[in-house]
Amino acid sequence: MNSNKGNRGATAGTLRVIGGKYRSRLLRVPLRPGLRPTPDRVRETLFNWLGQDLSGLACLDLYAGSGALGFEAASRGASRVVLVDKDRAVVTELERSRAALGAIQVEIVSGDAAAYLARDREHAGARPAGCFDVVFLDPPFRQNAVPAILGILPSRLEPGARVYIESEAPIAAGAPWTQLKRARAGQVNYQLLRWDGADAR
């Protein structure tokens, strides 16, 4: 849910968690130009794909924006959720949302997505801090960032990790990626990939 696309499917200034232990909690969304949460219907579809119970999983939202997907993951039991965004006002609101929910499993990082991944690679150890089971990837369309991010992401993935992508057009990611699901809502394509490659750590 990056902050550089037009609003769609959400009440301005609020975010409703749709499932899990925080269900129906309303969180504030900063009124930044172009920021919008992923619509309820798309989130429902995504978490049907992923499964409603994410207990014990580590999740990464690289372009957090409203935090819609990250907080949904935390609500559904994820043991660790990292939200990354480089807009300081967005980060401040994410911190407020975390406090309002009491979501201590959520870590918020102020910075660039690619820089975050590079930083984690530099500190790789027996179990690097950046190993994730689920990644949400929704960069600004105009940046065309998905191919580059997919290229550096595998070293931070657990075996069989799933990666959710929102984009203008379907991403044709070849082996060792496997497309699990794909759908479209209005002008937005969304799909779920699985990493089937060898452990790159």
The main sheet comes to:
7 strands, mixed
| SS field, number of helical segments | 5
| Element-level helix/strand string | EEHEHEHEHEHEEE
In percent, how helical is the residue content?
10-25%
Tell me, briefly, the overall form.
Answer: globular
Mean pLDDT: 84
Q: N- to C-terminal separation?
A: 28 Å
List the uncertain runs.
3-12, 121-128
User: Which structural class fits the helix and strand makeup?
Assistant: alpha/beta
Residue fraction in strands? 25-35%
DSSP strand tally = 9
Q: Please state how the strands of the largest beta sheet are arranged side by side.
A: 5-4-3-6-7-9-8
The whole-angstrom Rg is 15 Å
Give a written overview of the molecule.
With 201 residues, the chain is an alpha/beta fold. It contains 5 helices and 9 strands; from the N terminus they run ββαβαβαβαβαβββ. It has helices spanning 40-50, 68-75, 88-101, 113-122, 146-152; strands at residues 14-16, 26-28, 58-61, 80-85, 106-110, 132-137, 157-167, 177-185, 188-195. The strands form 2 sheets. It has a 7-stranded mixed β-sheet, covered by helices on one side. A two-stranded antiparallel ribbon has the order 1-2. The model is unreliable at 3-12 and 121-128 (pLDDT under 50).
Produce a short descriptive summary.
The protein is of the alpha/beta class and 201 residues long.
Task: Provide the fold topology.
Elements: E1 14-16, E2 26-28, H1 40-50, E3 58-61, H2 68-75, E4 80-85, H3 88-101, E5 106-110, H4 113-122, E6 132-137, H5 146-152, E7 157-167, E8 177-185, E9 188-195
Parallel strand pairs: 3-4, 3-6, 4-5, 6-7
Antiparallel strand pairs: 1-2, 7-9, 8-9
